[in-house]
Design goal:
heterotrimer, A alpha/beta, B mainly alpha, C mainly alpha, B: mainly alpha, 8 helices, C: mainly alpha, 7 helices, 0% strand
Chain lengths: 337, 152, 120
């Protein structure tokens, strides 16, 4: 039965199980604090391809295959793939899906892609349309830079609030078949725009969306921050995380003791990434390695995964627009020990 | 939901106060010595050319530009100029070597899209405005000079 | 001679520092700073203000992009003196043709020989 709590939250009463997660990252990410936990770390971000775009879609396809393999899912038995990425016309997702003989939905939520795909996948599993769904997303530093910012060899200086687009892909298998880790509920975010125009300060642009969605989750479900072992955002970075915590405090929710951010977790400060990691691949790779493994092992019993996305384009910025953002929150629970 | 202008202003002010400050002094010192050094290299090349070859001042100046542009593009190609830029900021962007870097870097980058529509079309995405407004400004100066000298 | 190099170093460095301050303290992007410098250089030359600085500091004034504007404007002025009205069109680009052609040629050669590398 489909149950909605409040205006924005869906409860998945029929059981949505998170069977497996796969992650593949670039060299810099492999050198970060979570390096050991990723399935594959590339030596070279071009991965023997002609272009960074081709390398990114290879990573995307590899993540899909690995996640299916871990869930013992035959490639011919995949009911649906839901995926997206940062590139124009989401070519990484669509072209990777060419390699699979499965129905495909392409989505775009910028860096909230992982949460959005899990949310939509959970709805379809809960409603009984599919028995298994592969949810995946990716990002690549070099392909994102050449599309959104400057050519790689250009000698520009990054500002203190800038973040580093993660080269990474992550994929998850959702299923109606019982397993330990499962998704119980999720909140669909609204587009929130607090007027930040600086494309080098995405954290500040996205933090209000994170605060809005998390507050909506707590209010819709009647839960509190203390109910969770961890509340983790996708790529707010150091500044954005701080702002989100303060915005939530103003709304009456104290998340400080249990709040973290994938962008802050994936790199450490010695890697010269300023505010931390960003990109779809950031939250996707951290979720499908470190967080999923922690849930399986019982280290975390209940987490709230809230990936945020900045919905700007190079054109909108040049036309003087501010940066609207969105955040989707997923409640993921671990094995009951 | 789009915030009302007043709320947006408040939020912007809040963010400004929280943002880590640029280490401006450090950046300026770095820009100073790297920029100064590149200019000295230019001066050195010019003096050397005038010493060795029988060139006019103007020709020496032109050859100096060519050599500096060559250095800028080569350092871009071997992958060093972006590191210099990260360190020196304006110290590497403002000298003519920065102009060279702004032409060479898209040329290399968009090779993947082919030589005509990639390299050719995108070579001036960063430097184009400099050429446009530089040419316009010089034409304006020429025009004003023409009017001033002919009609007065 | 050493004295000349000191002047070059200081003036060139200071011009870059002005650029750095604009980039750090305002939200003017690097591209706009460059456009501003070129235009300013041309205008200052037209007003007769930049020439003395070039005589004083040599490459310290000509190597930065202000100097590019100086070369453009000076070229336009000299072409107008020589060729009249046509100089308005021919002067600037002719004077800077060496640098521009070099950028095009060497930029192209770079694309042929090199490829972009992953940043770390």
């Amino acid at each position: 039965m489909a149950v909605r709590a409040g205006k924005q939250t869906f409860i998945f009463e029929n059981g949505v199980y998170y069977l497996s997660g796969a992650s593949i990252v670039g060299k810099k990410e492999g050198q970060g604090p979570l390096g050991m936990g990723f399935d594959t770390v590339l030596e070279d971000d071009l991965w023997e391809e002609d272009s960074y775009e081709k390398a990114e879609r290879k990573m995307f396809a590899q993540a899909l295959s690995k996640a299916a393999e871990k869930a013992k899912l035959e490639q011919n038995n995949i009911d649906l793939i839901i995926g997206g990425d940062l590139l124009n016309q989401i070519i990484s997702a669509s072209f990777a899906a060419r390699d699979f003989n499965a129905p495909f939905f392409g989505i775009y939520g910028a860096c909230s892609n992982m949460a959005q795909s899990l949310l939509l996948g959970s709805c379809l599993i809960n409603a009984g349309y599919c028995t298994n769904i592969l949810c995946a997303t990716s990002s690549h530093f070099s392909s994102a830079e050449r599309q959104y910012r400057y050519p790689l060899e250009f000698g520009n200086q990054r500002t203190p609030t800038a973040q580093w687009t993660v080269t990474g892909a992550g994929a998850a298998v959702l299923s109606c078949v019982k397993s330990g880790v499962h998704i119980t509920s999720a909140t669909v975010g609204k587009i929130i725009d607090m007027g930040i125009k600086d494309g080098n300060n995405m954290g500040a642009a996205m933090a209000p969306a994170a605060a809005d969605t998390l507050a909506a989750y707590f209010s819709d479900t009647g839960s509190k921050p203390e109910d969770f072992d961890l509340i983790v955002t996708g790529d707010l970075g150091l500044l954005g995380k701080d702002i989100a915590i303060e915005l939530l405090e103003k709304k009456g929710y104290d998340v400080r003791p249990r709040m973290n951010d994938c962008g802050c977790m994936i790199f450490d400060q010695s890697q010269d990434v300023h505010m931390g990691g960003s990109g779809c691949g950031c939250s996707a790779s951290v979720l499908n390695s470190h967080l999923f493994n922690s849930l399986t092992a019982g280290i975390y019993k209940k987490i709230l995964f809230a990936a945020t996305g900045a919905m700007l384009s190079p054109t909108s910025s040049l036309q003087g627009e501010s940066i609207p953002s969105i955040c989707h929150a997923i409640c993921i629970e671990g094995a009951k020990i | 939901m789009k915030a009302q202008p007043q709320k947006a202003q408040q939020y912007n002010a809040y963010v400004q106060a929280k943002m880590p400050k640029t280490r401006s002094l450090r950046n300026c010192l770095r820009a100073f010595w790297v920029g100064g050094l590149i200019c000295c290299i230019g001066q050195g090349i010019r003096e050397l050319l005038l010493y060795v070859f029988p060139l006019t001042e103007k020709a020496a100046g032109a050859y100096t530009s060519v050599i500096l542009v060559f250095l800028g593009t080569t350092l871009t190609g071997i992958g060093i100029y972006d590191r210099i830029g990260r360190y020196a900021g304006a110290g590497s962007i403002v000298p003519i070597t920065g102009f060279a870097n702004s032409v060479a870097s898209p040329a290399i980058e968009f090779k993947k899209e082919g030589f005509v529509l990639g390299v050719g079309a995108k070579m001036f995405i960063i430097a184009g405005p400099v050429l446009l407004y530089g040419t316009c400004a010089s034409s304006l100066v020429g025009l004003v000079y023409f009017i001033a000298t002919r009609w007065f | 001679m050493i004295w000349m190099f000191i002047k070059v170093f200081i003036v060139g460095g200071l011009i870059c520092v002005i650029g750095q301050i604009l980039m750090d303290k305002t939200n003017i992007t690097p591209a706009r700073v460059l456009v501003g410098f070129v235009t300013l250089g041309a205008i200052l030359t037209g007003l007769g203000i930049y020439e003395p600085l070039v005589k004083f500091a040599g490459s310290g004034a000509t190597v930065p992009l202000l100097g590019f504007g100086y070369t453009l404007a000076k070229g336009a002025i000299e072409a107008v003196e020589r060729d009249g009205f046509l100089g308005v069109f021919t002067g600037g680009l002719t004077a800077t043709s060496a640098g521009i052609a070099a950028a095009i040629l060497f930029g192209f050669l770079n694309a042929v020989v090199f490829s972009s590398k992953t940043k770390n």
